[in-house]
């Protein structure tokens, strides 16, 4: 009887060792396939008024091209920019430091999302941690603009991972909603209609969501064209350093006044 127990134990250990070895091989394979890519710009979290002014300038410029009536209200920082649970991303040119793109990420850690001023989210999103991407603004360049937008979206995804966010949520007007559908966002509102949104000037937008924990799996299965950029390419120019220690308190930005700088 003891011999059988010893044999079963030995087999169990052998299986565990084999499983660990397989996992180690998988980890090594991931490391081997990960490549480093440098970008002609950086993406970072705004932490001071100078960077916030840069983000506001590119935000205003972008909205002025597409929604001039709303842009008139976006020539200065908004209250949401400095609220707990919100961060502003900024893409800057390495050549001259000029702003190339921006996005604000607002979580529901401290308050409801901005879009909830206009619509009630479905039950499958209620009680879930969410991060809404708003105020996306990209420099008007066909080639560089596409790369900047992709890198900012990767930063958005990585931020959600660090903050343990379950759902990425966006609102998009037509035809921009098709870009998010291509990223495998799904309609959050039954029927996928367009709803006037107060935080974007009352313009009808489609509300869409993406489950953070399934992005890698679903994109891999779908052979998504951005899969390698997100999951097999390391971008050190996308810097969210220190965010893991800040998400608990919601602090990320202090004005020069609070720092004692006039």
Derived structural class:
alpha/beta
Task: Estimate the strand proportion.
Answer: 15-25%
Helix content: 25-40%
CA radius of gyration is 22 Å
Number of helices: 7
Arithmetic mean pLDDT: 84
| Element-by-element helix/strand order | HEEHHEEEHEHEEEHHEE
Shape, principal axes of CA atoms = globular
**What's the quaternary structure here?**
single chain
Low-confidence stretches: 1-19, 26-31, 245-262
Major sheet: size, sense and barrel closure? 9 strands, mixed
- Terminal CA distance: 81 Å
Number of strands: 11
What does this structure look like?
The chain is α/β, with parallel strands linked by helices and 262 residues long. Strands 2, 3, 4, 5, 6, 7, 8, 9 and 11 form a 9-stranded mixed sheet that branches. Strand 5, helix 4 and strand 6 form a beta-alpha-beta unit.
Q: Could you list some keywords that capture this structure?
A:
alpha/beta; single chain; 262 residues; 9-stranded mixed β-sheet; 36% helix; 7 helices; 11 strands; two-stranded parallel sheet; disordered C terminus; globular; disordered N terminus
Blueprint of the fold:
Elements: H1 2-33, E1 35-36, E2 41-45, H2 49-66, H3 68-71, E3 86-93, E4 99-107, E5 130-138, H4 142-162, E6 167-172, H5 177-182, E7 186-187, E8 194-197, E9 203-211, H6 215-222, H7 227-231, E10 233-234, E11 238-239
Parallel strand pairs: 1-10, 2-11, 5-6
Antiparallel strand pairs: 2-3, 3-4, 4-5, 6-9, 7-9, 8-9
């Amino acid at each position: 009887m003891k011999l059988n127990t010893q044999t079963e134990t030995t087999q169990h250990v052998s299986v565990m060792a084999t499983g660990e070895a397989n996992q180690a091989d998988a980890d090594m394979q991931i490391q081997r396939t990960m490549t480093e890519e440098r970008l002609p710009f950086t993406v970072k979290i705004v932490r001071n008024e100078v960077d916030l002014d840069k983000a506001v300038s590119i935000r205003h410029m972008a909205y002025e091209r597409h929604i001039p009536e709303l842009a008139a209200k976006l020539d200065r920082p908004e209250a949401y920019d400095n609220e707990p649970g919100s961060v502003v991303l900024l893409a800057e040119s390495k050549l001259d430091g000029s702003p190339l793109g921006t996005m604000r990420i607002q979580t529901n850690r401290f308050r409801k999302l901005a879009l909830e001023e206009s619509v009630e989210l479905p039950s499958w999103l209620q009680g879930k941690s969410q991060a809404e991407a708003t105020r996306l603004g990209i420099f008007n360049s066909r080639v560089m603009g596409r790369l900047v937008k992709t890198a900012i979206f990767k930063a958005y995804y990585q931020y959600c991972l660090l903050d343990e966010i379950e759902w990425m949520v966006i609102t998009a007007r037509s035809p921009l909603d098709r870009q998010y559908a291509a990223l495998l966002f799904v309609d959050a509102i039954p029927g996928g209609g367009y709803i006037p949104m107060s935080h974007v000037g009352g313009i009808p937008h489609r509300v869409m969501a993406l489950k953070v924990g399934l992005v890698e799996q679903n994109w891999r299965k779908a052979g998504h064209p951005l899969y390698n950029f997100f999951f097999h390419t390391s971008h050190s120019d996308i810097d969210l350093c220190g965010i893991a220690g800040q998400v608990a308190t919601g602090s990320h930005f202090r004005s020069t006044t609070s720092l004692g700088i006039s």
